[in-house]
Amino acid sequence: MSTRITDLPSTEFVLPGNRACAGCSLGIGLRAITKALDGKMVMAVPASCLTVLGGMYPTSSVAVPWVNVAFPSTAAAASGLAAGLRATGRDDITVLAMAGDGGTADIGIQALSGAAERGEDIIYLCYDNEAYMNTGTQRSGATPQGARTTTTWTGKGEHAKDMCRIMEAHGVGYVASTSAVFPTDVYDKVAKARGLSGTRYIHMNTPCPSGWSFEPKDTVAIGKLAVDAGLVVLYEVEDGRFRLTGRSASLAKSGRRKTIAEYVAAQGRFRGIADETVAVVQRWLDERWAGFVSRHEADAE
Amino acid sequence: MSDARAASVITGNEAAATAAKLARVQVVAAYPITPQSSVVETLSKWVQSGELSAEFVTVESEHSALAVCIAASTVGARVFTATSANGLAYMNEQVWWAAGARLPIVMGLANRAMAAPWSVLNDQQDSMSVRDAGWAQLFCRDNQEILDTFLHAYRIAEELRVPVMVCYDGFLLSHTVMPVRVPDQAEVDAFLPPYKPAIPIDPADPRNLNPVTMADPRANRDGELRGGYMELRAMHQQALTEALDLIPAVDAEFAERFGRSWGGLTWEYRLDDAEVAVIAAGSLGMELTVAVDALRSEGVRAGVFGIRAYRPFPAEAVRGRLAGKDLAVVLDKAVSYGYEGPVCADVRAALLSAEGAPDVFGCVCGLGGRDVSATQLADAVRRARTDHGRGVRIREPEWLDVRL
Ligand SMILES: Cc1ncc(C[n+]2csc(CCOP(=O)(O)OP(=O)(O)O)c2C)c(N)n1
Ligand code: SF4
Ligand SMILES: [Mg+2]
Q: Which of the residues A16, A83, B28, B294 could staple to B55 if both were Cys, CB 3.0 to 4.6 A apart?
């Protein structure tokens, strides 16, 4: 049912060598995304690490049409790309809005809400590295509780905004949560979204060695740990039907979730986090995970 | 010639919407604000009735309105938007983006006072606050000029790849009906060919548009040097400088086809033998013609010099047409707070060290919709002449009709 890594198309749209940090998972995700769209796409990209990955004039790291846009306006710009393509009679190009968590959950949420409410024919993909990385790791609405950033020196006090639920509340027909370290999960979800129309929202966890303080070689391990702890959940909601996918689906079956303590211990950004905070997050997480599992089981019937 | 046709009696906003339809705009995105709203409503009605074949994107803000226009224009669609005052301020980031991305966007601006405090009435502070953003700004005197100028604007924008803002006074024009000759679609089509984007959006020929650009030139993959940020800005400046020639050329071609000329960069009224030139942008210029007639009847040789293109600024025309005058009185419906009216400051700067340049006195008037009558304007010129006659050559800006 799901694509195996060896079955991914071999055409590469992300060229060898780009300006992201060593060990960045953004490039892994972007490779899968562009493969799933077969490069027949145009991207709207706001200010973010993705801009940096894209390259500096007059060179580019990615061989797909790429339009840089003002930071708050990704979804509106994507709406404009879609409208312009319709108006000029081109229906063979998928419009992909791709923004960071800050550009999505904070400054861009108004434009995104407007586009989703209008049902714009776009795929909106938020890559979530859980802070404003491009400007030096400041907190965002998607930064997890307890994480230290350059504007939460003692650890963030609040939970992350749940963008997927916000998008579900807009009545968006396809909402998915994935992780850049599971390229086949990313690929399958983007490929499915490509076959649908209207607004499609995909949230992609994107482990970031520089901002989270872990070794570049550990990117995939950290991303997997997030899924194994049930913090990042791989799922999709198609016309209201919820389904866990990949490793999260297996985890629901096995019930062998790892602890949040193990996850935070592996990253410098949680250094010094109080035991009580870890306990609070674990309780919050247990409840949330149970909700996902029961929704998965209920909708499977 | 379309002049044989009967005129329609329409508002400035209807003239703007009609022009957009005649230009066959393909994507419209705008957000309501007084006094621009009826432009949006009219276009939305036409799109929904099928009278206008275009995409109408009902955005949630002005920032998004211009974002949509920027993206649609990038893809190759002819686009239209319109706003006023706080709407323009809200889209400020995109105003710069549209220009920097060198997109031929045309925007209507029904000029309105900036809040706080709230005022929905007219002045020109809104457009003046973005004069440095790299758009061409054209000011209109009446509703016919609004319609015609929008058609000029697409030609100018698409030829030079710079966005054009068509500015017209809120309520005074936007909501006032006047006879307007609406040209035939076929004639407009002949004047305004379809828009072709400079850079394609094509997966077979992928480009990365507006990426991070360094200060210095860098080599592309073939080792050829490409300009840095400053080279791109210099090219932009060059385009606006070229607009100084193109704006009059387009006006002349339009006049040939449609029988109406608006003067290109500037316009004048009884200026040739005038000793005093009175200067303004927009509909205030029409009021000035009445004031000038009154002054002339008293034997004062006054004439109007109207600014149609505020950006690019017609400095050469200012120098050429004002040389030999005794005095220039510049009326501004805006202020650069802490200094003087923006048109006045620019006229003064253009004249500096020019042969035969007149002295320049500035007046600020009509802020927040304060009525400006021809009588008040004539009085202002009389006071200026008296001061000047007494040997005053440098004067603080006078605020007309302020009752502190
Ligand atoms: C209007 C505006 N405000 C602020 C910025 C500065 N800025 C650029 S990127 C960025 C943060 C981006 O964070 P996110 O969207 O999470 O992407 P990331 O860099 O983490 O990949 C900020 C604050 C900007 N470019 N524009
Ligand atoms: S800061 Fe993080 S997300 Fe950004 S490029 Fe570096 S590793 Fe990637
Ligand atoms: Mg981020």
A: A83
